[in-house]
Amino acid sequence: MKKEDLRIKKTKVRLYNGLVHLMEKESFEDIKITDICKAAMINRSTFYDHFDDKFALLIALMQDSKEELKNTFEKSNTMKKAKTINQFFLELISELILFLSKKEKNYSVLTIIQNNNHSVFYDMMYETILDTIIIEIEKNYTIKKEIAKESIAIFYTSAITKVISELLLKKEIEAEIVKKQLTILLPNIDYLQHK
Question: CA–CA separation, 68 vs 142, rounded Å?
Fold first, then answer.
């Protein structure tokens, strides 16, 4: 049973890598299942044993990427040690930029997003950041004014993801410059007090 599970996992990783390799060069919309199978070195029937179509493969890849980003945030010692919400946001931004730029298996999420205008990538990033901010506020902060934690989280998640997608993902500004600019733009948030 475990051998079969390992085989299934290896096949899915090969399909992910095949799709990702293709997405570094062309848009998702132009990629055919035949191309994915060729890049992954598997046959079409094996593809269909695991996924209904290329969209199901992309969604599974994004779900795994979302889990990986969530784990990155959860394991970050610098985010855990933040004494103010501003420090937390800056560390979150640093971890996000590092995650997007990190080369793993010869590709980076950033390269894929830059070459594909697919909203599923943006949605994955947005949802993960939103959840992380809400959890951080619930666990470590008291809201001193009448503002819902969801409103705070949506406001900062929108700002962070939009700045990163508009500047960094479009290759207009380097990661360190984006981080410095966001550091300046983040106001001193006095309506959240550390518990």
Answer: 29
